[in-house]
Amino acid sequence: MFRLEARPQPSRAMTVASPLLALLLTAGLAALLFVLLGKNPLAGLSAYFLEPLNGRRQLTEVALKATPLILCALGLAVCYRSNVWNIGAEGQFVLGAITAGGLALWMTSVGFKASAWIITPLILAAGALGGMAWAAIVAFLRDRFNASEILVSLMLVYVAQQLLNYLVFVTWKDPKGFSMPHTPTFDAATWLPNLVPQSRLHVGALVALVLVAVFWAFIFRSWRGFQLQVGGLSPAAARYAGFSARAALWTALLVSGAMAGLAGAMEAAGPLRQLTPYVSTGYGFTAIIVCFVGRLHPVGILFSGVLLSMFLIGGELGQSRLGLPNALTGVFQGLLLFLLLACDTLIAYRVRWVGAVPAGGAGR
Amino acid sequence: MNEIALLIAATLASGTPVALAGLGLLLNEKAGVLNLGAEGMMLVAAVAGFAVAFHTGSDWVAMGAGALAGMAMALAFGWLVIWLGTNQYATGLALSLIGGGLSAFVGLGYVGKKLSERTVFDIPGLADLPFVGPAFFRQHPMTYIAIVATLAIAWFLYRSRGGLVLRAIGESPESAHFLGYRVRLIRLAAVLAGGALCGVAGAFLSVVYAPLWVEGLVAGRGWIALALTTFATWRPWRVLLGAYLFGGVTMVQFFLQGEGVEIASQLLSMLPYLATIVVLALISRNPAWIRINMPASLGRPFHPGS
Questions:
Q1: What is the pLDDT of residues A92-139, one digit of tens each?
Q2: Which one of A155, A288, A337 has the shortest CB-CB distance to B276?
Q3: Domains observed in chain B
Q4: Which of A144, A298, B5, B188 makes a 20 to 30 Å CA pair with A246?
């Protein structure tokens, strides 16, 4: 009989080892699943874990998809550290894409021309404001009406998606698009500048890298970041110290909304260059996993963002090369988070073999 | 008049799965466990139920399969949060995400498949009554079972010893532990019961209500069911009424379109979600009211002997 025994202190080594252990277990279960599907498990694992890093084309694609994941997860880390459970980054992402796309469409229709140094920041700011506004609804309802931010932020995901549908099917629909629901392609002046020639990778990836550093400084080196964390760890201590819980709520939601909106703007003005009903392929939800696997730490999020992006690319590769269903990616993502939470038990507990337990001694 | 009758019938059918899931989550929460994985459990159960109905042709076997699928998911969740003491929010979210992925993967072979001819369920005598018949007595038996389940759960929670123990554990697991109750096992039982009800709800959606399988079929009903427990201030009958309210709002959009109201369908599709937000805000407005009604240990892990 194994028994969990509390460690005198949380294990620092396990904090780092737990995601790796979870990853290893996920890979093991993935290999098992490949065998069950009648595929070569090594070829399957290679599609997910090696081939996405093989060659310039794949690498730029990994960086391209890691960018929105990292951005959304950075914002969510601030939320979760403050014990604010925003799970609607997906909706804030969609709103960012809508506002940034709307601005790009307006610029396209009036023939607005300026240097990319002016246009790109405008587009990105529009997206960040859109995401912020959407998150502000959550903050307002929590602050004023005490409504659960979990449920409100999630409900708003569905509302945002329907709003996007309405715009691309009705208001902003491309008149030359026949029956296809999408907006006209944005004018080339509004596109995000490219980072690597002959790839889809845009400057957004650099912005994300800079923001990793900014968020590290904000969380660990700023007074406001400290207040947020105290509020998250111990609301009573924060109240005693006079840190406002309301300010923490608003800061966390506005920051994470802005980040998700920024990611949405980059998606619209980056690889898509138009709005379609499929602007987001679940980045906002995957970012929740990125956030936890990255230990709510900006540098950890950088790594886990790349990892989960490899899963996305691996899913596409597995489909095109091995005929594996792309839907497997979703299974692996969920599995990784689930196993991570289980492995995290090892941070505070160690497993001890205690021999046979007398009847009635276990299970209480 | 006839349209109104059909609207009432559709409202009852649309509210039933949400009511079943909401009742399951109510049992969880009364024991102090918050399961944010409802959406994932419903999705996996929906695909399991659809597959079973497709191969066996029986609605009832399909609902049973849905219940088992929901319980299997709930077991994984329960083990993590009750024995390993993981964060309930994060674990529930993980369950929702895994359920989304798993159902999409398993369901690939069932997209676009049709179930065998649906049986008509008319209550003899009553179904032929004018207005009342089409409105209330031409429902799938599950609609009535949901009402009976509400009655049974209300009785269990407030009139039986088992319900008293369950509520005691939800209010103060420490006290219940010192009285000699096996808190973790009872919490697990509540979580499994919740999983089974969410599972039946998911299978009902794919087998009876839709009846088809597409990715993301549940469309947020698991989350709405979660909101429902708060709406209902943790009372079974209010869960049922809230579910019908949600069903009504869902159906009003089709009714309005049928009446030729010129509002884009996308905007009308927002209604159930917006309504949920509005009602949630109105009910939560008074923090004291929520505090009095909410099980005191909700979301808090319990370690015996600590």
A1: 999 999 999 999 999 999 999 889 999 999 999 999 999 999 999 999
A2: A155
A3: 2-114+134-293 (1.10.3470)
A4: A298
